[in-house]
Design brief:
single chain, mainly beta, 5-stranded mixed β-sheet, 4-stranded antiparallel β-sheet
Length: 151
């Protein structure tokens, strides 16, 4: 994914060559998630809450959540993309069965993706405070993302 982005940027007219961009060191810390549990009023309920940000604040992202039975969860109610992914505007909450969940989060080619696990307990809201690390900031080089795909 990053390679395709770098090639596209270089082909559009960057003053840097692809080799110059690729030779930059990627000495970035990994993305991370902090787990916080809070009690729910109903001891039979279990909930997963995920909030995602980077160093500039909340960010939109794609996520996939797989519960302990191997089912992909759909907190949006709008259906899932291939691979069980769904889009979020910065956070989501969903009821879930107690047990382990695997959460995968990515926010475009300039953020380090995250794959993490959490254990959901009955009567608890398990919050994942995810902070994605930016690999690089294209806007500092004069490049801005856009979508010219219009229906």
């Amino acid at each position: 994914m990053i390679g395709a982005f770098v090639v596209a940027v270089a082909m559009v007219g960057s003053s840097q060559t692809v080799a110059q961009i690729r030779n930059e060191p990627l000495a970035t810390p990994p993305s991370r998630a902090e787990v916080v549990e809070t009690p729910l009023a109903n001891p039979q309920q279990t909930e997963l809450l995920v909030r995602c940000s980077d160093d500039r604040g909340p960010i939109a992202f794609f996520a996939a959540v797989v519960d302990s039975s191997g089912q992909n969860l759909d907190p949006t109610g709008r259906g899932l993309y291939r691979g069980g992914r769904f889009a979020s505007d910065g956070s989501f909450a969903t009821p879930a069965k107690p047990g382990n969940v695997e959460v995968s989060i990515q926010a475009g080619p300039n953020h380090v993706p995250l794959k993490t696990e959490a254990t959901l307990k009955p009567g608890k809201r398990t919050e994942l405070k995810v902070v994605l690390t930016r690999w690089f900031s294209p806007e500092t080089r004069g490049w801005y993302g856009g979508d010219n795909h219009v229906h």
